[in-house]
Write a structure and sequence with these properties.
The chain is an alpha/beta fold. The protein contains ten helices and 20 strands. It has three domains: 159 residues, Sandwich (Immunoglobulin-like), CATH 2.60.40.10; 44 residues, no CATH class; 165 residues, 3-Layer(aba) Sandwich (Rossmann fold).
Length: 394
Amino acid sequence: MIKISKLPFVLLAILIVTAMLVGGVFIYSLVTTLLSIILLSYLSGRSVYKNIINILWKNSDKVQVGDKVKVELEFYNSGIFPIPYLKVKTNFSKRLTGEQEQDLIYSIMPASKTMIIKEFTCKNKGIYQIGYAEVEFGDAMGIFRWRKIFQTDVSLYVYPKVHNLKSLLIPFRQNFGTVSVNHSAYEDFASVRDIRKYATGDSFKKIHWKVTAHKGEFYVKNLELNATADVNVFWDLHSKNYVDEYADDIEELGAECAVSIVRYALNNNMAVSLYAKENHFIKLSGTGIARYPEFLDQITKAQVSGDTLVWDLVKREAQKLNLGATAIVITPQLDDIALEVLMGFKAKGIEFAVVYLCRSKDLVNNNVEALKQRGIMVNTLSLADDVRLVLGGR
């Protein structure tokens, strides 16, 4: 693409008319000189357009939020004409770098190159096309301005931060997988944690008879607590719930929760299903840690662009779950509809836990306490909280 300054051509037209009316060697020499300058400017610009080369280098293709990335853009002028003015614009979005993009201006001599180095910390998950660069250059006289776009298929995958959960504070009932819990109903008599002296109220079923006979006093077994679980994660991607200045941070927090919960569940051999609604409906199910990359890619690609309330999604999909299934809802929106939906499913025997995403715990939401009072587990997670502590309890 080329832009042309009208002033030199207006001046050339005036000189030509003057030469035709007045004549004279001097006037004709001015016409010839100006015409030569215009022609040389055009030819040099055309040559630069053909001979400027862009090469992109990066230190990684796949990173995690919080990682530093270094990208190098190299522009090489392989022609015979210098580039006195080169403005470079890239498409490193503010969502990726956290900084507003700025145009950079350079000049390049023939058979020379210039290097643009961008080093930044990845701010948000997603798949970013970084192989785009737009350059604008012109001749020394400012007669012509050329624009050239370099676009190569170079992507940067930024995965959400994954928190290594040692436990998960949600209720489990159903017979899939194995996970520690804190309720005596799930004591595993085949798995002994340690041994202690008998205390009033202990069940005689727990007495360790061999140790009791050896010590001459009663000793009981402390048993491992285990339950089984089928985990269903509902992730809120409704666009109207992410609209304020903290929207990107809260979205990122939700992605961290989703991917951390999924990884924990798969690592403990639970059957996991992920539900979300962006431009299209997302449902991904699997068992075993080998399926984790699929969930990670899906969560990375997902965008806050849905038009369906997460509670409508829960109503539609949770009714298909087996009795005693466990479901987790990750959302920044808790309203009266949420209260109605969750209590309805609790009455049907489906256990729900809610991860409530918020900017700050100072912002009161009365529905949080209302749900807790009705026996629904709600973990409030603010931007200042440690995800591992809130989700795992330690």
